[in-house]
Structure formats: C-alpha cells, structure tokens
Structure prediction request, 122 residues.
Amino acid sequence: MKKIRQNKAFTLVEIMIVVLIIGILMAIAVPNFIQARKSSRLNTVLANLKQIEGAKEQCAMDQGAASGDSSKCTSSTLVPTYMKAWPTNTPVTGTYAEGAIGTNPTFNGKDAAAWTADPSGL
Prediction:
C-alpha cells in the first residue's frame, strides 16, 4: 500500500512573493499617506487663519475700529462673541496671532499667503 503525503503548508517561494507584493504596496501607499497628512495640516492652518480674519473683520465693524488698531479686537474679545473658541488643539503645534486691524492673522509668524507659498514647517 502506498501512502499519499498531503502538504498543507506554503512554499518558501509563495511566501517570498507575498512579501514582495506587500512591499510594493507599502512603497506606493506610505508616500501618499505622508503627502495627505501634510496637505490636511496646511488646510487646517489656512482654515483657522480664515476664521480668525473673518472674526476680526466682524469685530472691527461692530467696534468701529480703524485700520491699524490692535487694542479693540484681540483674541480675548474675539472669543466667544465672534469665534466659538480660539484654535489651540490643532494637529500642528504653534501659536496663532490675530494682529492689528487691516493686517492678516499669522500662525508661527507666517500669514496664509506665506503658508500657501511655502508650507514647510508644518
């Protein structure tokens, strides 16, 4: 009588092919994931700067503040009347500054146009 041997394991070649395919997929996915993170961080900063600018403009109209006036529309007067909360827990660490009336708000010393032109540092 002849015994039939049944192998239920994978061969080394099959395992190496699976590892190769996973490596190729990772090489494609990881750079895209990193780019998506950078893009979402930039969009978060730009949205927060736009929100601060809108609140500052509304405050200036309500207060009758002139261009260049930095005392009437500070972060403490913008919250909670013109903004729900000051952006602090963002995915990017740094500080937002509202600036004087007629100037753009900044994040880490750069305004929205500067962040759009050079998003390094996020």
Remarks:
- Helices lie at 12-63, 75-78, 112-117.
- The mean pLDDT is 86.
